[in-house]
Fold:
Amino acid sequence: MITALLLVLQLGTPVYDRVILGGHVMDPASKLDAVRNIGLSGGRIAVITTEAISGRDTVDAGGLVVAPGFIDLHAAGQSPETYRFYALDGVTTALELELGTSDVAAWYRDRSAGEVVNYGVSIGHIKVRMAVMHDSGTRMPVSDGAYRAASPAQITEIAQRIEIGLSEGAVDIGAGFPYTPAATREELLAVFRVAARTKTPIHVHIRPGVAGLKEALALAAETNAPLHVVHINSAGLAETPAMLEMINDARARGSDVTTEAYPYDAGMTEIQSATIQDVYKNAPDERLAELEWARTGERLNRASFERYTRIGGPVVVHTNTEAMVAVAIQSPLTIIASDAYWQDGTGHPRTTGAFARVLGRYFRSPSPEGRGGQGVRTLMEAIRKMTLMPAQRLEARVPAMRQKGRLRVGADADITIFDSATVMDRSTYREPSLPPVGIQHVMVNGVSVVANGQAVEGVAPGKAVRGVAPR
Ligand SMILES: [Zn+2]
Structure:
């Protein structure tokens, strides 16, 4: 500090903590799209300039894109292992907003020493319902949390616990209707009323297709709750275009509705969960081949489905097409969110590659493998979907998000630096932990968590992202 001050006095120009020199700075908020030098001080951006600047540490960004750090609104893994994966994919803020937690205070307390990336959680209707209904499942409801209707007193308790979670700083409210099939419309209305009263977005895994979206839009319209529809690609499948149209129309009518997508044509979830059991338990045997046991890659049949249902674990769900994924990713409505899924050492490749995959496969022109058909959008648009759009979605409830998702003086120094010519995911269903290539440097609050494409070990600059207590 004293050294820095002396240097300033001696030279008349400030010396920054760190400088990022000669990068192609792309900031969707200001539309800045030019080579600049960036100086960082105290974990924030102190200057963005064409002038020569110096710092105690220099990152050469020549030939690379310098973007705001990616913000993932749907990062289901929230462990040191998954935070490291996210950082390698360019993510600087990883939020778990669908499943969430039933104990917000404990969730943040567990991470208060800092993590690799910024972190945050929703108060989750699924998790709260599991607690109130005394469900026997661990990760997802498997008994009364899924299949038993709540009494009026239990509905009141569910709503109260959600309000408590918000008062403890939850980022928003999460819900997943297919995981809680016994939740009545009355119960869901009670949850949406809390969202409306506290002006908190409710992030919903809707029931499948147009009918599922109609239900969620009706709940939002009836209560005036802000609604965020998670993973429109897997909720929509072949109906994705119609559903994006419905969201567009709702927004045009003034509704606060947003959505997100991830760039893969297969999903993943727990085989014991209601969302799998309700669809496949009584399905024709041949449909079971849509399911792949994540640990081995085998497609399931009746016998293996029943065997693995008893064991429990992640299952890959092959029900979408690449064309529908492209529609979802390229829509101007969609925020990019990974829906990262990691369980006991394995998981979905989106956990480690979702953002690099969008940059490498959906936006780098020409469109690879004949994908798309809606026109390939610009790199700036891709970055906007990963940074500014998710930040803006949360700003009303989480004012701290106004300092994220942008490269401007005073913003948090959450920065992702990548090679737009080579960036590409590498992870697969068989090798889901392979990090992408081309994500060169990732900084969280000014501290490198990825340097020269490698994870930096032993750093934990990520801070809690919290909502403000509702009035
Ligand atoms: Zn989901």
Observations:
- DSSP finds 16 helices and 24 strands in the chain.
